[in-house]
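ok so for the tutorial part 2 we go from a plain amino acid sequence to predicted structure tokens. step 1 is just haveing the sequence, like this:
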Amino acid sequence: MKKISNLLFTIFLTFILLNSVDALTLEEKEVSVTKGESKTVQLTEKFTEKVKKIEFNLVYYNNDIIGIFQVNPSYQDKTAGIKHEIFFPNGVNGEIDLGEIQVTVADKPTVQKGNINISNVQATTISGKVLNIENESLQVTINDKKEKAETPPKNLIEKIDSNIIQINLKENIYEYKVTVKNDVEELDLKPIAKYQGTTIDVSSQKLEKNKNNTIIITAKKDDIEEEYKIQVKYQQDIKIDKHQYKQDNSYKKKWSIIMIFFGSFFVVGLLFLKKEK
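step 2 — the prediction. this is what the tokens look like for a chain of 277 residues:
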């Protein structure tokens, strides 16, 4: 009886080994995924015989870690719930790229780790023989989301509108000098914010002659504060002192001499030509 049992066990083991092939191959068996993000893992299989289809169940156990299989576009996937059947119309063998598993982690997961299992894997050959394939498992570890360091905005003010003067703002420049006509008593500066949520304050824009007039524009957003200084000067009148200014007419004398010289030369030339005739 014992010999019969051993014989049956040997036959059963031989049957399993003859109908088994290498396990599915995952590009990675352990992956780390950041909260709220996704990652794909390639799934391949090396067939030792020509097969017409492979089927398996893809199972994840927590909605915080979701695994979705996306078949290689070259093949057909008949999906029903967790079960996948991939068909190869002309049959395939060797190392085959079946597709990829997309792993997605929730924004606020309640777990730190989880598994995505591939089970009940079987391949069917062209002749109809069923090959049992070992199961595979993908272990997923969740990483905390890294806060992206925001670059502080430069120049909270986009531009300064005015019908009186023109100011061309430059990055990281906060002091400007402008000149106005003598009849201007007050400016009309209208700063325009670059970012939503920026508050802008403008000091008095009234001007006083014979004084250094500076208009201060303050822009604030969150923890950032910028101060723009607009220094205003009046145009200077140009006065001519009649007592010091003397008209220079010397150039007229020079031109007269030149005209007399060339005129005399011309007359002499004409007389000389007449004598030759």
